[in-house]
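Table 4 source record.
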Amino acid sequence: MGAAEALGRVIDTRRYPLTEPDGAGWDSAVSRTRAALAESGCCALPDFIRPSLQEALSAECATIAPRAHYDVETVNAYNIDVGSPLPDDHPGRITIERGNAFVARDHIPADFIIHRLYSNELFQRFVAACFGLPRVHELADPLSGLCLNVVNPGMEHPWHFDTNEFTVSLLTRQSEDGGVFEYCPNIRSAEAENFGDVRRVLTGRGGDLVRRLTLRPGDLQLFKGRYSLHRVSTVDGNTARHTAIFAYSERPGVIGSVARTKQLFGRVLPEHLAAEGRAVRVDRLLD
């Protein structure tokens, strides 16, 4: 089966005509997404997955959610050691409990909708075009390339910045209440940390800087999270929030660090040990 046919079986091609990459529909979808990313660093594509598949999407991910690695810990927005020597008024000294969890890629069957989408070459081409990149590569990391994020009732994914410059995700199950994606567009840059505004948000005094986005199962989200502080608010009710994370990189061969991999998945593989110490940074920010 070709990439176009495989993609057409998964996504709503009437709304997102991406099976013809040289067509006007493709160009229009890319242009709209680029415009939203340029304006706020965030773009949601509602009902990206065919409506007829959304129930199966949720059910598939629910079957693997019990395999998530849980690790409740005290963190800060920069994902650095909370004991790091910082000035008293530094936002990195503000800590919060993180209790979300991740199902690793090696626990996600290849025939699942999220796996088929993540590996689809045409989908990857679309993602690259939206972010203005010549191409994107699947992570070489056998655990974090594709994963399922689980946020259980009573927990949240607290304020943080991403290590990657861009993120692609797909909501697969919505919580009964809460679990809202909140973000502060471009609150910092590669040249300036802007600690003052970050501190205002973390202390609840920066509401004017926060935008909110309610996502539904089947919605695709493209986000520039390296420079935009963001979180998923506390999940209320009895239903966990599930989100598939599609991790791509501008360069091939990317593998997560040993420390970060242990934090997210509770284990490492030989690939992580072999790659340790070869990470490449894109800027000189704190995290």
